[in-house]
Specification:
Layout (H helix, E strand, L loop, with lengths): L3 E8 L9 E8 L4 E5 L6 H8 L7 E6 L2 E2 L5 H6 L1 E5 L10 H5 L1 H5 L4 H14 L4 H4 L9 H13 L5 E5 L7 H18 L2 E6 L2 H7 L2 E5 L5 E5 L1 H6 L4 H7 L4 H5 L26 H11 L3 E4 L2 E4 H7 L7
Parallel strand pairs: 3-8, 3-9, 6-7, 7-8
Antiparallel strand pairs: 1-2, 1-4, 4-5, 9-10, 11-12
The protein binds adenosine-5'-triphosphate.
Protein name: ABC transporter domain-containing protein
Keywords: ATP-binding, Nucleotide-binding, Repeat, Transport
Family: Belongs to the ABC transporter superfamily.
């Protein structure tokens, strides 16, 4: 199992008076997408890069599937951890297929196996292999290059992915499309993912859990998006959540996340399986009910109103 455990991890850069990351402990369960969100300079990237040893911790321990990452050879470690960054870093003189299969190449895959994998991944990220595999990066739009970046990180099927603001450089519409595609992918692949962003809406939309970080990467709150929206632990987190934006955020939360056990759903209006909490609320208001059906379960008004920050006056 590829869970990740940070145990009192500290990074002190040379010449800095304070550590960039100060004794951070965090458990990231296997198969979950955990988002680090926090203001610029709070140490998100530093924390993430210590997991694949692009940055070496000053002290503390990082376990990957129970194994100390510091005991592993860095290049070998990195071949098992997909890495996606904002400036994708595709090699301009290599074709898209060659870019995608860099790591499989290092792992000694045959040309045939690499070609198949690259076509499969292009399909997976929504690019037609026959029209894209032989192009060069400059012949693709920013959003398409970003998809190739994701495909490349997935190439050797690593159990763990680190993603640093991967959609940050794209326009809002492309960004939303990439987020949606990525959510669909992750529902299928269930990788262990650490995802860095400073956009709280993105964190709510993508995260199974969110770590809200304060300065020096200290964890202000670590919980599901729903729990953080409903009960921010303090003013710092509440400031991040921003109560005025709560209604808007309902449109980001799949109502399936809120579904309760199957009960009697006779006669209740139904929302489709991919509906958002906002859709469910609209349906309740239209039908004057406090419960709606989704699949085999139901969701009630209390679950939705909790997301609006019920009980936390600002
Ligand atoms: N190589 C370095 N040497 C010295 N200080 C550094 C180095 N890299 C980062 N820092 C400092 O460590 C702190 C954390 O930086 P980091 O890049 O991890 O933050 P971040 O939360 O990812 O920020 P952003 O959202 O702006 O990318 C910052 O104060 C930064 O100036």
């Amino acid at each position: 199992m590829s869970d990740i455990k940070l145990i009192q991890v500290t990074k002190q850069y040379d010449g800095q008076s304070q550590p960039a990351v100060d004794s951070v402990s965090l458990d990231i369960p296997a198969g979950e997408l955990v988002v680090f969100v926090g203001p610029s300079g709070c140490g998100k990237t530093t924390t993430m890069k210590m997991i694949n040893r692009l940055i070496e911790p000053t002290s503390g321990q990082i376990l990957l599937g129970g194994e100390d990452v510091l005991a592993r050879e860095p290049n070998e470690l990195r071949r098992h951890i997909g890495y996606v960054i904002q400036q994708i870093g595709l090699f301009p003189h290599l074709t898209i297929a060659e870019n995608i299969t860099l790591v499989p190449g290092l792992l000694g895959w045959s040309a045939e196996r690499s070609r198949k994998r690259s076509d499969e991944l292009l399909d997976l990220v929504g690019l037609d292999p026959s029209s894209y595999r032989d192009r060069y990066p400059r012949q693709l739009s920013g959003g398409q290059q970003q998809r190739v970046g994701v495909a490349r990180a997935l190439a050797a099927d690593p159990p763990v992915m680190l993603m640093d603001e991967p959609f940050g450089a794209t326009d809002p519409i492309t960004r939303e499309r990439l987020q949606n595609e990525f959510l669909r992918l992750q529902a299928e692949l269930r990788k262990t993912i650490v995802f860095v962003t400073h956009d709280f809406d993105e964190a709510v939309k993508l995260g199974d859990r969110i770590a809200v970080l304060r300065e020096r990467s200290r964890i202000a709150q670590y919980d599901t998006p729903e729990a953080i929206l409903a009960n921010p632990v303090d003013d710092y987190v509440a400031g991040f959540v921003g109560s005025a934006a709560a209604l808007k955020r309902l449109a980001l939360i799949p109502v399936a996340k809120l579904t309760t056990e199957p009960g009697s759903a006779d006669g209740l209006p139904a929302v489709p399986p991919d509906a958002t909490a906002r859709d469910a609320l609209d349906l309740m208001i239209r039908h004057g009910t406090s419960r709606v059906r989704i699949g085999d379960g139901t969701v009630d008004f209390a679950a939705i109103s909790a997301l609006l920050g019920g009980g936390h006056e600002r």
